[in-house]
Amino acid sequence: MSLLDLLKTISAIMGMLTVLSVIVLSLTLLERKFIGRIQMRKGPNRVGPFGLLQPVADAIKLVAKEDILPTWVDKVIYWVSPLVVFIPTFMIWVTIPVARDVVIRNLDMGLFYIIAFSVLSIVGLISAGWASANKYAIIGGFRAAAQLISYEIPIILSVLAIAMLAGSLNLERIVDAQATKPYIFLQPLGAFLFLCGGLAELGRTPFDIHPAESEVVGGPFVEYSGAHWSVFFLAEYINTFAIAALTTLLFLGGWLFPGLPGNVTASGVLVFLTKTYLVVLVIFWFRGTYPRLRIDQLMSLGWKVLVPLGFINVVVTAVALKTELPEIILGLISFVILASTFWIISVRMRTAPKPEYTVRLYDPSLEGLNAR
Amino acid sequence: MGSTQESGTEGGVLTESLVVFLIISVVCVAGGLGVVFSRNVIHATFLLLVSLMGVAGIFLLLLAEFLALVQVLIYGGAITIVVLFVIMLTKSDEFESLVDNSQKPLAFLISIGLFVVMTVAAIAADNGNTVRASLKFSDLGHSLFTDWAIPFEVASLVLLVALIGAIVISKQGEEE
């Protein structure tokens, strides 16, 4: 590796950072506009034409804001935690291709690399919670760890089934294998698992247990402000885009579209971005539609529904590949399993006995609420 | 992938890989020393993470990409988080008194012994082979599930037993 290569790599990484920052700006505006429309509001429309400059104004505000350092925090870990969250989210973009050969380094184990590095940001969330030395922050940190570890498993299992179908962990090869059929038709169950797990990894509604404002007032981020908070914010939106991009690459055929040449960079990037932004809109749509899960519901959904479904998905895919079942049958089986899961959940929700709540009112004759 | 590369010194000249190796080693050793000398258990855990990531870097330098990624996933992600959980959910005040106890000479002795054994092994294993070659990922998987299928299954069985054992032990505590 010569100096020129090093410079090339550095400039590519700086370019990636710039592009990702612009994408994050667009995502914040898109989210506010879209959620606004869902709630029959107009969304931001004051700064610039149609509110287009709103994210820029927000960014300037965030950077100019005072960065508060509470006296009780563990300073080193408090300052390092945002970076520990941010660097893995940034690093996974090294191997995510935007079109054929439009990628910094196409790794043969791209998928495995992405999964390995995305786990690292959990450490940052826990350490942020701990270093803040705040009850809400540390509860949020623990919630983040429990949730992210649990939902990593369905993601890995759904990705595993895709890798089995494509016979590769290289993201470009996986897209090439979808030339005639996007994997969402073969793996509707896998797509559901991946998107569910992905939403949980992001900590977005309906899985926003760790930053839940009404329960832990922002979770691990509660003490952060200004530039350091915006690093977490940036990481969250880059992650959102990454999950959408991965959904596109793994299940929706990446930059391929019927009738469009897959080898032309411009059309490839355009198709990829269109698909990815559509998935992002679906993610925002969830946020505008669903209430937050309770933490016990979250855990039971993860371990009792998604993890077993993940194993079923892998086994079904393996059997279908071994017996050389027609692909349409595999898709049908996968769809039937997914549909019956939804059906069972909806039936159970209607028939399950309502939990009994006991409302304890404040009684001055008792010494606080702890006395029973 | 699949490439071979000269390593180490070429006639005493510092090559890029040697420089990278030195940087990574310094990070590793500094992290390890930090773990030992840190008085704060949480700080020690984060320094342990630094050291383990350094080991991943060394694997990467040896063109063992798979091992490097496994190191990041298992040690960086899973094990550090579990260690953090255990430390944060137990009363860490109790550890303060355990730092300087009577096991220190024994631990010192064992560490020195281990260090000597590993150094001797490393010197004995030096067969002058300085060419690193990376294994194709698919070949690795193939050999893991054919030639090494039984050790692989045994290892997974051991892990399963450990998992069930942990659940049984924690449930016993609950009943009492």
Task: Give a brief description.
By secondary structure, chain A is mainly alpha-helical. Helices cover 67% and strands 0% of the residues of chain A.
Describe this structure in words.
The complex is a heterodimer of chains A (372) and B (176). Chain A is an all-alpha fold. Helix content of chain A is 67%, strand content 0%. Chain A has 13 helices and no strands. In chain A, α2 crosses α10 and α8 crosses α13. Chain B is mainly alpha-helical and 176 residues long. Chain B has two domains: 132 residues, NADH-ubiquinone/plastoquinone oxidoreductase chain 6, subunit NuoJ (Four Helix Bundle (Hemerythrin (Met), subunit A)), CATH 1.20.120.1200; 39 residues. Chain B contains six helices and two strands, in the order βααααβαα. Chain B has a two-stranded antiparallel ribbon with strand order 1-2. At the A-B interface, α3, α4 and α5 of A face α2 and α3 of B.
- CATH level-3 fold name of the largest domain in chain B: Four Helix Bundle (Hemerythrin (Met), subunit A)
Radius of gyration of chain B: 20 Å
CATH superfamily of the largest domain in chain B: NADH-ubiquinone/plastoquinone oxidoreductase chain 6, subunit NuoJ
How much of the polypeptide of chain A forms β-strand, as a percent range?
under 5%
Q: CATH top level of the largest domain in chain B?
A: Mainly Alpha
Largest sheet strand order of chain B: 1-2
For this structure, the quaternary state is heterodimer
Portion of residues in beta strands of chain B equals under 5%
Cα(first) to Cα(last) distance of chain B is 55 Å
User: What is the number of beta strands of chain B?
Assistant: 2
Which shape of chain B, going by the Cα principal axes?
A: globular
